[in-house]
Amino acid sequence: MTALLPALTAQAKLRAHRTPDCACDAPHGVLADRPDAMVVRHADVVAKAHAPGTPEPALTARLAAAAHPGLADTLLAPLSAQPARLHDRLVTLWPYGAPVDRDDPDAAPWEEVATLLARLHRTPHAGLALPLPPMRGPEKAARAVARLRATAPHPAASPVERAWGVLPAWARDEAPYPGPPHLCHGDLHLGQLVRTPADRWLLIDIDDLGTGDPAWDLARPAAWYACGLLLPEEWTRFLNAYRAAGGPAVPADGADPWPVLDVPARALTVQTAALAITKAVAGERALDEVEETFVDACRRMAAVPPDLAPTGTK
Amino acid sequence: MHCPKCHAQMHTYNRNGVQIEQCSGCRGIFLDYGELEALTRLENQWNGHQAPQAPPAAPAYPAAPAPAWGAPHGGHGGHHGHHGHKRHKSFGHMLFSS
Q1: pTM over cut 0.90
Q2: Record: contact B91-A140, CB cut-off 8 A
Q3: Does B33 contact chain A (CB < 8 Å)?
Q4: Quick one: DSSP state of residue A38?
Q5: Do A168 and A253 belong together in one domain?
Q6: The CATH number of the domain where A237 resides is what?
Q7: Phi/psi of residue B68, each to 5°?
């Protein structure tokens, strides 16, 4: 495991400058080092080691989708069509793109991300080179709840469990999505887009890409808005841009989007709350005010199950 | 407080100093004595000469629809109050993580 970082760095150097021992002063560094991913940059090249146990056929199909010309203006295209194997991890190579500024959330490109999602959702997945697996949104929510269950008891766990319990089976990854499948990103947040040297925003991170409910990709901003964290103006900008770009997840005519957003936004609120509790327990700290906001939303959710939930406010 | 119609929990919203109870179930709104008049007065101040025929309760609804389980929105001064307060580092971090 410890040998992975130098090996991954060597891969990035090899691709960028044709030598694994390049000692140039081009921009370089570790972009992410998490249990599920290690990402390093050298000059214009980014090498990503995917999560241990990532199935190769699924990753190859997702890589092929990102490389498809029909998605060139939506997804960042990889530098190689096949994943490589390195220390039991699958590795992919990408061109470097500048991320959204984390220190300036007020400058978040809501319109751009909404437009990219609309484009992605409108792309016919049947036309892609390889059939894609289901997008992994519900699976990630279920995994967050499983992690919560495996962690030490916490008073906030029970409202989160109750909110999870009222969700339909498909949203808990216990049944296939029953609606018409669309091409989806599967794990959208503001870390999932980069600006290319040609000054174009593109979506990155294909690990959860697949077919499913496109509303899932809108559900994180929707949950932030519902929890009172995202300003109504920002949510409206995001939603309007998505509609203007012909996004199919919500009714186009300006009708209330919550009948379709409700279940995915609940699931992502549960996921966020479950991960927050897990991290707080591991860090032996209390939940912060923002994390409490998600637990509070879970408390309210359990009282209004999705099938009874009146959506919209006229 | 519970809704007299569907018995779901009612949440308190503050609209420019006017307390409004909205049902988390049927979204019905309960106004205390004098609150309707207070809302009408506020609406007239804002709208000036424009559209006086609008239903007086209209400003009580959020600008964008939100789910029944959502947090009370915009009722604490909107941009500069409640939201600005919560918009700290933790949320900034959350915008970028899975």
Answers
A1: no
A2: no
A3: no
A4: E
A5: yes
A6: 3.90.1200.10
A7: -60, -30
